Amino acid sequence: MKIQTGYLYHIKDEFFNVVNDDKLMTNHERGKKRPTYFTIKDRDILWFIPLSSKVDKYKKIIDNKVKKYGRCDTILIREILGKDSAILLQNAFPTLEKYIDHAHLLDNGKPAKVVESLKDEILQNFKYLLKLKSKGINLFFTDIDSIKEKMMEELK
Predict the structure, then answer these.
(1) What element of type H or E holds 155?
(2) CA dist 47 to 21, 51, 63, 150, Å?
(3) Buried (b) or exposed (e) across 7-39, using 16+ Cβ within 10 A?
(4) Taking the complete model, does pTM exceed 0.90, yes or no?
(5) Which of 18, 32, 44, 60 has the highest Cβ tally under 10 A?
(6) How many alpha carbons lie under 13 Å from residue 44 in its C-beta half-sphere?
(7) pLDDT tens-digit series, residues 53-79
């Protein structure tokens, strides 16, 4: 499987067992494979950013952050595949290709991807959050450094 930035994928349960981080979003919801992840390919590491259909829930969180801080860079509400989705940058985590279960497929059987302008916006926000983290301002819920270290160890 060719993994590309901007495409949507699902992750194997095995990843959650290996990483064992209670801050990660759960992989199943009512028997369905969830969530779908926007993927960023960064050499051997993949960054997965969860997407959620619970838009109203996240709109409230965004509104609260904007009232408190004047902005919200950790959650975006955008249209993906014809439906509004919450893009949860705050829940991003690194993983490896071997933990991808499958690509999210369109009705025509082709792998799903986001439009180029949205891909660029997500990448820009993600890089900004990584830059803040490097300056000591961590807005990620998971311990991305620890998870990345585990993934790098697996590559050795």
Answers:
(1) helix 144-155
(2) 16, 13, 26, 14
(3) bbbbbbeebbebbebeebbebeeeeeebbbbbb
(4) yes
(5) 18
(6) 9
(7) 999 999 999 999 999 999 999 999 999
Fold of the domain spanning 8-155:
Thiol Ester Dehydrase; Chain A (3.10.129)
Listed by start position, the domains of the chain span 8-155
Q: What angle do CA 98, 101, 102 make, to 5 degrees?
A: 115
pLDDT tens by residue, 90-110:
999 999 999 999 999 999 989
- Asked if pLDDT for residue 32 goes beyond 60, the answer is no
The CA distance from 129 to 6, in Å, is: 18
The whole-angstrom separation of Cα 129 and Cα 147 is: 17
